[in-house]
Structures are given as structure tokens and as C-alpha cells.
Automatic annotation (TrEMBL):
One of its GO terms (molecular function) is transmembrane transporter activity. The lineage of its organism: Bacteria, Bacillati, Actinomycetota, Actinomycetes, Micrococcales. This is ABC transporter. Gene3D superfamilies: P-loop containing nucleotide triphosphate hydrolases (3.40.50.300). Residues 2-229 form the ABC transporter domain. Belongs to the ABC transporter superfamily. The keyword ATP-binding applies.
């Protein structure tokens, strides 16, 4: 489903060539919940940007469902980000004056989904992540951090993406709320057959994933995969 082969990202800094991602290869199937760990500056965030088509690799291939996004023109990359990828950020990045429902409807509007269908699907996604009907109409800035992260997950699921990329999704949450988000990510990956890849420092989160990768100095290695029941 996601196949990364010999991916390099390089740039010049004075007389030096910096390679924050340097020959990375790995693959993830649908329905897999995976984590990428590593120290700051090791290349995790750069790799996430390449997978999400926020940046282009200098060389190598990033293939999602048979499409090599490393070779797509910018116009098609916009459609890829909109239709095939769901993003979840540490800071939630919700629009404060929109209700939870309106926030989840927004990416569907950009995708050309009708208003009636946007409303229906937004409610379905919010129910899926555990928000009550009453909370659907509550403004984002009136929700707790844990609830805002649930709305962010619902928004990421809005256009039925093949891949969800999450950058430190539990980073600002307390332990109990973080644990709830971890369980929710695990459930979404396995029940919806969605590939979910998280970049995290959270060992509790990483310990509950199906696969665990480590990035250091631009290289990637994988811990021994867990056997799924």
C-alpha cells in the first residue's frame, strides 16, 4: 500500500550537502498501525513531509497504491494530499470558530462533496471517534485538548484516505487522554483497514503499534515486528 524505496532528501548548506533522509526504504500494508521514533534532527519530520507530499524527494520513490507521488506534478500532488492522505498534527490545527462538524466538513468541501453528504459523513466520522451528538455543534475552542484531537482524527478520515500521517498526536495530552487516542488510532487502523503512521517520542504509543521504525542520521531501521493476533 505504501512503498518507500531508496528515498533521499538533500540540500546545500554553505559548502556542505545535508541529507536529513538518506536512502530510506520500507513498506506498510493497509490496516497497519506503525510508528517512527528518533531523536530531534534525525530526519523523522522530513520523512513525514515526503510521505505526505508536502515536500519532494531528491531521489527515490514513494509509491502509494501504485502511484509514485515522487514523480507527480504539483497539481496532482494537491489532489493526492486532499483525497489520499489524512493529516493529524500535535497542535490539532482546528479553526477555532468552526464547530466540530464544520471542521470535519471542510476538507470534503474542497473535494467537491455535496453539502448534504458532507454533513452526514462528518457526523459519522465524529461518532466514530467517540464524540456525542451534542458535541458536534460545539466550537473547537470550547473543546478539551483530547476532544480536539478526536475532531482532528475525524477530519483526517473525512475523505476516506488510504493513509493517515500523524505528527506527535499525543504530544500535548495528559497520559490518560493520550492512552485514549492511542487506542482509537489502533482501532481505526484495524477496523477501517487504514494505514496509520505516527511520528512520536511517546514510548507508550510506539509500544502498541504493529510495527516500529527508528530514524537516525537519515537512516531507518525496524524493530522486530509484533505478531498480530
Amino acid at each position: 500500500m505504501l512503498s518507500v524505496t531508496d528515498v533521499v532528501k538533500s540540500f546545500k548548506s554553505g559548502d556542505q550537502t545535508i541529507r536529513p533522509v538518506n536512502g530510506v526504504s520500507f513498506a506498510i500494508e493497509q490496516g497497519t498501525f506503525a510508528a517512527i521514533l528518533g531523536k530531534s534532527g534525525g530526519g523523522k519530520s522530513t520523512l513525514l513531509s515526503l510521505l505526505g507530499a508536502l515536500d519532494k524527494a531528491t531521489s527515490g520513490d514513494v509509491i502509494v497504491d501504485g502511484v509514485n507521488i515522487s514523480k507527480l506534478p504539483d497539481g496532482k500532488l494537491t489532489a493526492y494530499r486532499r483525497d489520499d492522505i489524512g493529516f493529524v498534527f500535535q497542535a490539532y490545527d482546528l479553526i477555532p470558530n468552526l464547530s466540530a462538524q464544520e471542521g470535519v466538513m471542510l476538507p470534503m468541501e474542497f473535494a467537491g462533496v455535496s453539502h448534504a453528504k458532507r454533513s452526514e459523513r462528518a457526523d459519522e466520522r465524529l461518532n466514530q471517534v467517540g464524540l456525542t451528538e451534542e458535541m458536534h455543534q460545539r466550537k473547537a475552542n470550547r473543546l478539551s485538548g483530547g476532544l480536539q484531537q478526536r475532531v482532528a482524527l475525524a477530519r483526517a478520515l473525512a475523505n476516506n484516505p488510504n493513509l493517515i500521517l500523524a505528527d506527535e498526536p499525543t504530544g500535548t495530552l495528559d497520559d490518560e487522554t493520550g492512552e485514549m487516542i492511542i487506542k482509537l488510532l489502533h482501532q481505526l487502523a484495524h477496523e477501517k483497514e487504514t494505514a496509520i503512521l505516527v511520528v512520536t517520542h511517546d514510548q507508550a504509543l510506539a509500544g502498541q503499534t504493529d510495527r516500529k521504525f527508528r530514524v537516525s542520521r537519515g537512516k531507518i531501521t525496524e524493530d522486530t515486528p509484533k505478531v498480530r493476533a
